[in-house]
Design goal:
Elements: E1 8-10, E2 13-15, E3 38-44, E4 47-55, E5 58-65, E6 68-75, E7 78-85, E8 102-108, E9 113-127, E10 167-169, E11 173-175, E12 178-185, E13 188-191, E14 196-210, E15 224-225, H1 229-235, E16 249-250, E17 255-260, H2 269-278, E18 282-286, E19 291-292, H3 294-303, E20 307-313, E21 319-320, E22 323-324, E23 329-330, E24 348-352, H4 357-372, E25 384-388, H5 402-414, E26 423-427, H6 434-442, E27 446-450, E28 453-454, E29 457-458, E30 463-464, H7 465-469, E31 479-483, H8 497-503, E32 511-515, H9 523-535, H10 558-572, H11 576-584, E33 585-589, E34 604-605, E35 614-621, E36 624-625, E37 630-634, E38 642-645, E39 651-655, E40 661-667, E41 674-679, E42 690-693, E43 696-698, E44 701-707, E45 715-720, E46 723-724, E47 727-728, E48 734-737, E49 741-751, E50 754-767, E51 777-779, E52 783-785, E53 789-790, E54 792-794, E55 802-807, E56 810-811, E57 814-815, E58 823-825, E59 829-839, E60 842-855, E61 862-866, E62 871-877, E63 880-883, E64 889-891, E65 897-901, E66 906-915, E67 919-925, E68 939-942, E69 950-958, ...
Parallel strand pairs: 15-16, 17-18, 17-20, 19-21, 20-24, 24-33, 25-26, 25-27, 27-31, 31-32, 43-50, 52-60, 61-71, 64-71, 65-71, 73-80
Antiparallel strand pairs: 1-2, 3-4, 4-5, 5-14, 6-7, 8-12, 9-14, 10-12, 11-12, 13-14, 22-23, 28-29, 29-30, 32-33, 34-35, 35-36, 35-39, 37-38, 37-40, 40-41, 42-44, 44-48, 45-47, 45-49, 46-48, 49-50, 51-54, 53-58, 55-57, 55-59, 56-58, 59-60, 62-63, 62-66, 66-69, 67-68, 67-70, 70-71, 72-74, 74-78, ...
């Protein structure tokens, strides 16, 4: 006992020298409540919690502190005071007092918040001689506790009480069907400055509903599942107080959701069939390789609240969960958080970790054989093995050394239950691997391990993956509860211990719970206690060794055992180390497998005559009724089985739809399994009937037919006139009709008593297509690895006759097949698919953007055996600044990505913690994205050794080469020790160090450039643009004032119709980046010049003295002028009469054209005196004849008045030769006697 050295009386506190006495200063706060309508006392190690229901909207909790002691201990040569208290859950703020606390979990209303208040408290205070022992913080199992000192944090020396509050309530959480919260009471509060300790002997808390905004409401109104209900009874002090609310239960054990990739779709089917035969509803989902299935599970649960188990099929490369916890490791259990916004699991997650189909088959067969074909004489079920290290004294749960903890499990839990065989002990520091392999190879029912761990072995015993690979225990398979670091680290290269035990064919383990992280010391010990409590059907901590939450129930599936136990662990204490454990403790194997703890009991099935409609039987063991046996009927004519559990009288009645042959299966905890085929007994022939929906369709549509026959037919034969297929033996077939018409349907049904037929004539009417197709399609897979193929299926209606597909990113990039297959995608990215479906009425279009996701290939594994010394603590490059803890390998590619630019250096720094002088860093980048780091230039950095110990930072740069594949690729950073088990390659394991993978986004920045053939044009002029950008694949032009205003052509032509100066912009883009060039006021558009004329006519007929004076208005100097008479000046003169055309071109190329006319006076002709003169022909070609009386002379003139012919005549007619004259208009004058003159125009052709 602690001896007080001083006697003082201060502030109501008394202290005595050399005396131990308790003088309490009691402060009571009174509060009047209604008489208790209900009262429950829940005993815990070191304290009791009493629940009192005062009224419907409030209740009280009385926390009564039990025994405690104050002791003096010496640590590192310093004396401290410690608190010895039954409940060994303490505050672990490093350097602050290590104070125990009390807690209770309470059930809350679904949609109400509550508030808490202290209504009374009773405490005493002690003035301590020695300071309270400080906490060393959270200690993990990869640490040596003896090397962690006890040190008081100076910040803790304060006059304020620690903790500052007497009580604390967590945020509301949901565990599947129940909403709850954790309430903590801190009965020990410490004033470090005055070295006084306040101890609360009793605290009463009132919990009252309020109307504040509801936090994390429970919207799932489903009834409580029998597989979950008992956990609520253990967890919540006020659970089940409303008998009406919790009177019913849903579908017994709950449904199973199986998630697998295409690789394992067929090999997992035997396990699925067995689970259905057992009586589970099993639902299947296939996902693409590498999918994080968090959303998949959430969506499935939203659609079906009966899901209780999720079985993942595949390794980390196949199916992914979130990374998290303090070490950023896989968190499979957190996939089970589907109700509310909290971190409490609602469904149970298991994993068949398999990198090959053989691994799946091995693990599936283990579960099938264990449940379906038990060893009816096997005593090994009652054998066990406990392995415990010699460490943990004073820091383990209940202050237990690891082996003491394991021994309590053996002596007080396993042996008093059914493990009356040999439970072997492998305790202490000198345990060898043979002490594990020998009992394991002989066959075991259960293994408990508590100690240090590495990925591939249990440190206590050095039992490793190598030992597991040679395990020879056949089908005598144990379940394993393991408290150890990283033995479940399945996300890095190579098998972890959990995988090795499960993947071993012909031995190993049935199922195991192992961690993906370095576990903290204490929380998993509590969890392991609870697992064994539940395995052995309950444990009373008030009457047995240890401290914890007592249980009065057991669970029989491995997943239910571990689920309940870890939930109890984290509700009892919800510090960060508890959550770390909860997040990462992973179920390997079949989560729903029903465990066995002893030689199976023979069963009697009272009725083996399976009758149609309802089957009833009774299950007996040693002649007594057996409650809780699962009885099931199943064949593959139905998607799910019909099943039920026996009641307290061993009776069960099952309604079912089965006929013909059906499998009857009976299973139960520690029972022999009955599973056999039976013929459903029917004594009356069927009466045939059926329906179809719909009965009127369009060509190409389907009809679903439903058998409505009575008397349980067992076989069906359908005949569909005009249908595809034309016949069917299914009970409810779906048939396609492609041709217009009316069609007859016939059904013949048969059972063991006879058959009947029904024909419905012209039952189905098929109308012709009158509309264009509504295009639709689906893909065989939408997430593939680079180089994978996709098959597409047309789902269009209205009977298209032709198809046109466009596959962005695919090869080929198009197809005209209806259902194209084998489309190859070779470049990572997300791509659209478009289908044009056409018939005589038109074309339907369906475009699915971002439809096909092409991922990088799988990369080789790389890791290290140990990070206990040096590790990578930070990587910084561009957008990445990632500080990390020690892990052998971590894939950060999904969360950490940096942009890097082709031919530009990016600085990268890699910081090491605990570096040795022989350590080295290597960096690789997969520049061509072919899934390896083996190509030229992909080793981007090889450092010199550090040459020093301690923390060390390497700085270098990375430059993507010209020709590197653009987009996301992988960078691998490796730390290894060049002197001890080195590995300087990108693949494989080193003895020491770490490997981290990151994503780099390789960007090639294009250069935008262009020119124009002209930059000055007139209105309505055109400009030809020429793109001269580099490293671009697409172009986006903007033309201010132009038509078109935008363009995506590489070299567009643009028309400008309005005056002004205009900008031109080009954005050049490639798959990773873009660049733009803007040319301001680049294009000038002007109006063409206009022309006006002043003309001066010829002075007389035929004169050449006319002129034209032209004025040019507008335009841009200088001008180019061209007249039709070849003149090039603005004004022209010396013109004869006629029209003159002109074209003026300004300096911008704008053209103006017009015409001006020079006129002349008319020709003066002498007056004709005598008529009767004939001139013919006119027009004339060669000759012209002239006749008149008394002709004397004939003259011919051109239009210039020049005389061409002058001929004297002495006759009344004359013939002129004009064949050699130029064509044109002439004047002919005829002179007759008496001085008479006659003039007339003559045309010569």
């Amino acid at each position: 006992m602690l001896i007080f050295d001083k006697i003082n009386f201060k502030n109501g506190t008394m202290n005595f020298k050399n005396t131990f006495a308790l003088v309490a200063t009691i402060m009571m706060i009174s509060f009047t409540i209604e008489a208790n309508s209900q009262s429950i006392v829940k005993k815990n190690g070191g304290y009791d919690v009493t629940f009192n229901q005062n009224r419907s909207s409030e209740f009280t909790l009385d926390f009564d502190l039990d025994k405690y002691r104050l002791e003096t201990v010496e640590k590192n040569g310093v004396a401290y005071t410690t608190i010895e208290f039954g409940k060994n859950i303490v505050l672990k703020k490093k350097g602050w007092a290590e104070l125990p606390y009390m807690s209770a979990s309470v059930q809350l209303p679904n949609n109400k918040n509550v508030s808490i208040e202290v209504v009374s408290e009773d405490y005493v205070e002690y003035l301590l001689e020695k300071p309270l022992l400080p906490s060393r913080g959270v200690i993990y199992r990869n640490q040596n506790p003896s090397e962690i000192p006890f040190e008081i944090d100076p910040a803790s020396i304060t006059s304020e009480l620690y903790p500052s509050s007497l009580t604390e309530m967590s945020s509301p959480y949901i565990i599947r069907n129940v909403r709850g919260a954790n309430i903590k009471v801190f009965p020990f509060r410490y004033n470090a400055a005055e070295n006084t300790l306040r101890v609360y002997k009793k605290v009463t808390i009132k919990v009252v509903e309020n109307n504040t905004r509801v936090i994390n409401p429970l919207t799932n109104n489903n009834l409580v599942n029998k597989g979950i209900a008992p956990i609520y009874e253990s967890l919540f002090v006020n659970y089940n107080q409303n008998a009406v609310r919790w009177s019913d239960e849903l579908a017994q054990f709950g449904d199973i959701l199986v998630i697998y990739t295409s690789r394992d779709a067929s090999v997992i089917q035997p396990w699925i069939t067995w689970k259905k035969q057992m009586g589970y509803n099993v639902h299947e989902t296939q996902v693409a390789t590498g999918t994080n299935v968090k959303t998949t599970i959430q969506n499935a649960y939203n659609a079906n609240k009966n899901i209780l188990y999720v079985q993942l099929v595949g390794d980390w490369a196949d199916i992914v969960s979130d990374l998290g916890g303090s070490e950023n490791t896989p968190m499979d259990p957190m996939l089970g958080c589907v109700e509310g916004t909290d971190d409490y699991h609602d469904i149970i997650i298991g994993r068949f970790s398999a990198s090959t189909t053989a691994h799946v088959t091995t693990q599936g067969n283990k579960a099938i054989n264990y449940e379906k074909n038990p060893d009816l004489a096997g005593t090994w079920y009652s054998d066990g093995l406990g392995i415990g290290s010699a460490e943990g004294s004073g820091i383990g749960d209940d202050s237990e050394i690891d082996y003491a903890h394991i021994d309590i499990i053996k002596e007080n839990k396993l042996v008093p239950f059914t493990y009356s065989g040999s439970v072997s002990e492998a305790y202490g520091a000198s345990v060898t691997s043979s002490q594990v392999s020998t009992p394991l190879n002989a066959g075991l029912g259960v293994i408990n391990y508590c100690g240090h761990g590495a990925k591939t072995y249990w440190v206590t015993s050095n039992y490793s993956t190598t030992n597991a690979a040679s395990a020879s225990n056949g089908s005598e398979l144990p379940i394993v509860f393991s408290v150890a670091c990283v033995v479940g680290e399945f996300n890095t290269s190579g098998d972890c211990l959990a995988e090795a035990l499960l993947r071993r064919e012909g031995g190993g383990a049935l199922a195991s719970l192992m961690s993906t992280m370095n576990q903290p010391w204490t929380p998993p010990m509590r969890g392991q206690d609870y697992m064994n409590d539940i395995l052995t059907q309950g444990y009373d901590y008030a009457a047995n060794p240890g401290d914890g939450t007592s249980t009065t129930y057991g669970k029989t599936t491995f997943g239910a055992i571990t689920f309940n136990a870890t939930a109890m662990m984290v509700t009892e204490s919800d510090a960060s180390e508890d959550w770390d454990t909860y997040y990462t403790w992973t179920v390997f194997g079949d989560a729903s497998v029903q465990v066995r703890t002893k030689t199976p009991d023979a069963i009697t099935v009272s009725n083996l005559n399976v009758t149609p409609g309802v089957y009833s039987t009774q299950i007996l063991v040693d002649g007594l009724p057996f409650e809780g046996a699962l009885v099931s009927l199943y064949n593959d004519s139905e998607e799910q089985p019909s099943s039920a559990m026996t009641d307290a009288s061993g009776n069960v009645s099952i309604s079912h739809p089965y006929t013909g042959t059906v499998t009857l299966t009976v299973t139960g905890f520690n029972l022999a399994t009955y599973s056999a085929e039976h013929t459903v007994a029917v004594s009356v022939a069927p009466i045939c009937d059926f329906s179809g929906t719909p009965t009127t369709v369009i060509e190409g549509e389907t009809v679903t037919f439903t058998d409505l026959s009575e008397n349980y037919p067992s076989s069906w034969l359908w005949e569909f006139e005009g249908g595809i297929p034309a016949t069917s033996t299914a009970s409810h077939p779906t048939i396609t009709y492609n041709s217009e018409g009316t069609y007859t349907v016939t059904l013949t049904v048969t059972n063991m008593a006879g058959e009947d037929s029904l024909t419905k004539v012209e039952y189905i009417t098929v109308n012709p297509v009158t509309e264009a197709p509504v295009a639709d399609f689906t893909a065989s897979v939408t997430n593939i690895v680079m180089g994978g193929t996709v098959d597409f299926t047309d789902l269009s209606n209205n009977q298209p006759t032709s198809w046109a597909w466009i596959f962005e990113g695919g090869t080929p990039s198009s197809s005209t097949q209806q259902n194209p297959s084998g489309i190859i995608y070779t470049t990572p990215g997300v791509y659209a698919v478009t289908l044009y479906a056409t018939n005589e009425f038109g074309t339907g279009i369906e475009e699915k953007p971002l439809y096909i996701t092409v991922m990088l290939p799988d990369y080789c594994d790389a890791s290290s055996a140990s990070t206990s010394y040096e590790y990578i603590s930070n990587v910084t490059i561009s957008d990445i600044n990632n500080t990390t803890a020690a892990t052998s390998y971590t894939d950060y590619t999904a969360t950490q990505e940096a942009d890097v630019y082709v031919n530009q250096a990016s600085v990268i720094s890699v910081t090491l913690t605990g570096a040795y002088s022989s350590d080295q860093i290597l960096i690789w980048v997969d520049w061509n994205k072919d899934g390896d780091f083996a190509d030229l230039g992909e080793t981007v950095y090889t450092s010199a050794v550090t040459g020093a110990s301690g923390n060390y930072t390497y700085n270098t740069s990375i430059t993507p080469p010209v020709g590197a594949s653009l987009g996301t690729t992988r960078m691998r950073v490796r730390l290894h020790d060049t002197s001890y088990g080195p590995m300087a390659e990108p693949c494989g394991d080193s003895d020491y160090g770490e490997v981290e993978d990151y994503s780099l986004n390789v960007i090639l920045v294009p250069t935008s450039a262009f020119s124009a053939d002209v930059t000055a044009v007139c209105t309505n002029g055109q400009v030809q643009y020429t793109n001269s950008s580099s490293d671009a694949t697409s172009y986006e032009w903007t033309f201010e004032g132009g038509t078109p205003a935008t363009s995506t052509e590489e070299n567009p032509i643009v028309t400008y119709s309005a005056n002004g100066t205009f900008n031109v912009t080009l954005i050049a883009t490639n798959s990773s980046s873009s660049d733009s060039e803007i040319k301001t006021d680049y294009i000038t558009v002007t109006t063409p010049p206009s022309l006006t004329f002043v003309t001066n006519d010829a002075s007389v007929y035929g004169a050449s003295d006319g002129s034209i004076d032209m004025t040019i208005i507008g335009g841009t100097l200088p001008f180019s002028i061209l007249w039709s008479n070849a003149e090039s000046t603005e004004d022209i003169s010396g013109l004869i009469a006629g029209a003159y055309d002109v074209e003026v071109v300004d300096n911008n190329g704008c053209i103006a054209s017009n015409s001006a006319t020079v006129n002349q006076p008319p020709l003066v002709v002498e007056k004709l005196i005598v008529n009767g003169i004939s001139i013919y022909p006119n027009p004339a070609n060669d000759f012209v004849n002239i006749s008149a009386k008394n002709i004397e002379k004939v003259c011919l003139y051109n239009l210039l008045g020049q005389e061409i012919i002058n001929k004297k005549v002495s006759d009344k007619s004359v013939k002129l030769d004009v064949g050699k004259l130029h064509k044109g208009l002439y004047i002919i004058k005829v002179y007759t006697s008496g001085n008479n003159v006659y003039s007339q125009k003559l045309t010569i052709k």
